Amino acid sequence: MTQSAVAPVTVDQRRGGQGGRPRRSTIGWRKFGTILIFLLPAAILLGALVVYPIVYTAIRSLFGASGGEFVGWENYVTMFTNDSTFTAIRNNVIWVVVAPIACTTLGLVFAVLLERIRWSTALKLIIFMPMAISMLAAGVIFRGMFEENPNTGVVNAVIVGVQDAFSADTAYPGARPREEVGLIADRGTIAGEAAISPGSEQNFPLIGIRADDVPDSAAQAEPAESPGSDQLAGTVWLDVVRGGGGTNGEIDDTESGLPGIQVDAVAEDGSVAGTAQTDDSGRYLIEGLPSGSYTVALPASNFDEGAQGVAWLSPALINVVVILSYIWIWAGFSMVMIAAGLSAMDRSLQEAARMDGANEWQVFSRITAPLLSPVLVVVFVTLIINVLKIFDLVYVIPPGVSKPAANVIAVEMWTVSFGGGNDQGLGSALAILLLVLVLPTMIINARRFREERKR
User: Fold this and answer.
1) How many structural domains does the chain have?
2) Do residues 170 and 209 lie in contact, with contact meaning Cβ atoms separated by under 8 Å?
3) Rounded to an integer, what distance in angstroms lies between the CA atom of residue 35 and that of residue 46?
4) 363 and 442 inside one domain
5) Residue 326 per-residue DSSP state
6) For the chain, how big is the Rg over CA atoms in Å?
7) Residue 51 DSSP class
């Protein structure tokens, strides 16, 4: 048997290629194809929902309101010459400065302090609960809470209740004198039409007072006792008989005296020479008056509206209310994130610091807070991105008169485009402005994630 003359095949030749060089393997292409198949649906979705809207919005911002006329940079010029845009930018700056810092600080305080409380889980649940409420519902809640009318607004009801509890003054809003009884009303003050001398009487029959404003201590009105030579006397009463009847300007049965009313004797030079307060029957007695002529007056303070609610939803305070509502919602988010960071922290460092004599503030400021800095940065940056896009609360809470004062870029963009402006060119320019403001924070956040991944 003869041996075959076939030359042996080397390893390089089996791999293929000339000169012993390996040919390109198909395994790499297969991996690339597999990756492409899995990424293609996500890439198509990302392009349709993110890339295309951004590109289209940038192009649309160069056209007019109807979209048929190319106007170039005119929309951007209009945007930066509008007072409403400057108000929106200013308010966004206030939001970025106040809301993230407040939420992060409160979240840190809650997370640290609640660790030392027995029922911390229940309290954390209560604080986090507003996150389960939609922004729209939260806006409706806060608008109702901060109504100016104390009968409908919870906050003002509490304020008025506290003021009334510590105020000893009795007020009769709406009071006015009977006509043709010798009294005049000027700027809320009710006074006798003619000056009188000591030893005389000056009565005040009043009307226009609600029955609810008459205190329970009020008794049947009684005529004043005859005054002495250095005294002025009289009665202040509600000159109304329930069910009708009676004589106007005279004290009748069932007519109530008005207690607690301040009565002043005003001298000719305008100074107050004496003062007194009515008793339960409405009688007063001013004593120790020198001879002369006096005008007896009931100061306007007797008839003011008393404690009233604060106009929280006015243009001056509306931003405070809206930002408070945001803090109420998002402080729970900050607390949960920071509490997660605390649970993963190495507690041996804190215990070592305490053993070395550090107090609790030193442990917190030099150990706990620095170790939590990565989590705090995540929370803070997330909140900055969120407040730059704030819309729901600003749209729902302010009443019509206060909407311009609370305006932000997202609301301005919606109003210009769909809320009556019908100028989608200008609205697109505002959308690009909002993107430019949000983009740097997102880039910083992405870089930070990348750096943490390399560690």
Assistant:
1) 3
2) no
3) 16
4) yes
5) H
6) 39
7) I
Res. 24 pLDDT band, cuts 50 70 90: low
Question: 319 with 355, same domain?
Answer: yes
What are the C-alpha distances in Å from 268 to residues 195, 265, 286, 291, 293? Answer: 9, 10, 16, 12, 7
Residue 185 forms beta bridges with which residues?
190
- What's the pLDDT tens digit per position in 212-271? 788 888 999 999 999 988 999 999 999 888 777 778 888 988 889 999 899 999 998 888
Return d(Cα 390, Cα 248) in angstroms, integer. 62
Tell me: do 226 and 134 sit in the same domain: no
With the C-alpha atoms ordered 378, 380, 384, 386, is the resulting torsion angle positive or negative? positive
Which helix or strand (DSSP H or E) is residue 369 part of?
helix 369-388
User: Could you tell me the two tokens for 352?
Assistant: 């070592």
Residue 25 lies in a domain: no
Sign, CA dihedral 387-389-395-396, equals negative
Whether 212 and 242 share a structural domain:
yes
Pairwise CA distance, residues 12 & 119, whole Å: 73
Same domain assignment for residues 279 and 342:
no
Distance CA 204, CA 194 (A): 13
For residue 186, the domain's CATH number is 2.60.40
Q: How many CA atoms lie within 13 A of 48 on its CB side?
A: 6
- Same-domain status, 143 and 182: no
Supply 361's token pair.
């503030």
Residue 362 lies in domain: 74-156+312-454
Query: Cα(202)–Cα(184) distance, rounded to whole angstroms?
Result: 13
Q: Is residue 218 part of a domain?
A: yes
